[in-house]
Amino acid sequence: MEKYTETQRRILEVGKKEFLAKGFRDASLRGIVKDAGFTQGAFYGYYSDKAALFDALVSEAADSLTDQFKAAQEAHYDLIPEDKAAESRDLSKDYLNHFINYIYDNFDAFKLVICCSEGTRYAGYIHDLVEIEVVQTENYHARLRQLGKLKGTVSHELHHMITSAYFTAVFETVAHDMTREQAIDYVNELATFFNCGWDGLLRLE
Question: Which of 25, 30, 109, 128 has the fewest CB atoms within 10 Å of its CB?
């Protein structure tokens, strides 16, 4: 069974084009319906409003990345009992490369989320990922500190600012329409730069 009807595919296609051109807030539902060649009644047979259409275009990819990100955070805890916490930077880099490829496999969805989502529940997407990262990493650091494997400290405020800068920089790949190859090179250089700073602050043993 096909996932979408021909009518639904046409609405999604035109909706994506409208959102990419104008952003969610300025996109016109009337214009989307008109360009799709259907009545508003046909539209409402599939989506309750403009926000529901935007969700249909981005939610699967964006929510899946969030779930994968949470799972990656948990994977770091597996390093502790194996006395491999020093490998956490390499693990983070491996996941980063996985994530950037996933983003590029779903580029249009993430372009909508990063550049066109003001007014939707995805407007704070990067901030939400930052919050997850900070909470999980601080808990991870606390565990390492209890075991005597982490000597340095960093304030919550600085941790949040550094993480926010890092995540914003990663998603610049999408904002600036880098090619996949450019993006992979860029984020790996970025990770090296930020990891050197973290190593200097935290002094993992």
Answer: 30
The Cβ of residue 1 has, within 10 Å, a number of other Cβ atoms equal to 2
Mean pLDDT of the chain: 90
Q: Does residue 2 surpass a pLDDT of 60?
A: no
Task: Specify the 3-state DSSP secondary structure of 79.
Answer: coil
53 domain-assigned: no
* pTM for the full predicted model: 0.90
62 shares a domain with 148: yes
Shared-domain flag, residues 78 and 3? no
pLDDT in tens, 138-190: 988 888 888 888 888 889 999 999 999 999 999 999 999 999 999 999 999 99
Q: Residue 173: what residue type?
A: T
Cβ(121)–Cβ(181) below 8 Å: no
Angle (CA) 7-9-15 rounded to 5° is 100
Q: Which residues pair with 204 in a beta bridge?
A: 150
Question: CB neighbours of 180 closer than 8 A, spacing ≥ 6?
Answer: 100, 101, 104
How many CB atoms sit inside 10 A of residue 163's CB?
Answer: 19
6 plus 89 within the same structural domain: no
- Domain of residue 139 covers 58-202
Predicted local confidence at residue 76, as pLDDT: 73
Does residue 81 carry a pLDDT above 70? no
Residues 190 and 97 in one domain: yes
Contacts of 142 (CB under 8 A, 6+ apart): none
Burial label for 192, CB within 10 Å (0-12, 13-18, 19+), is exposed
